[in-house]
UniProtKB/TrEMBL annotation:
Keyword rRNA-binding included in the entry's annotation: no
Organism of origin: Saccharomonospora viridis
Domain N-acetyltransferase, chain residue ranges per copy: 1-150
Name of the protein in its database record: Alanine acetyltransferase
Signal peptide: none
Molecular-function annotations in GO: N-acetyltransferase activity
UniProt KW keywords: Acyltransferase, Transferase
Record-linked Pfam families: Acetyltransf_1
Gene3D superfamilies given in the database record: 3.40.630.30
Entries under PANTHER family matching the protein: N-ALPHA-ACETYLTRANSFERASE, N-ALPHA-ACETYLTRANSFERASE 50
Amino acid sequence: MRLEPLRHSHIDACVRIERLLFAGDSPWSHGAFRAELDAGGYYLAALDDQDRLVGYAGLAVVGRPGAWETAVHTIAVHPDHQGQGIGTALLRALLARADELQAPVVLEVRTDNDTAIALYERHGFEQVGLRRRYYQPSGADAYTMVRPARRTQEVAG
């Protein structure tokens, strides 16, 4: 598995994975992915040894130098490839980008997604809020989680 920048040519595969994973909660459309890529966010593709997309992740970056903020917009791994460390690799790559910017990272995660919550907690995220009925149309709740900015010496250590 290797990570590379997510490209427009990956969008069809992203949409297929979205529909598998998030069918009950408004999976992202082709247009949503195009808009995110066109906006210049930090998006990565996870490709297998046959160049098939098996996962993707995206980090939005806003602000200005010295005052950057970031948000994980998505992390997804095809069900056939879950449990192989792909989600962890994607998250670590997003966090490395946030660390380069010395930016805090925020995300939302379904309150019933124990696997994702444990992953985020292992990487320094803490729950700071609850968003009732955040995911639609299912009405599932989400935790807001934050990982504080890492200073240069924390990243190097």
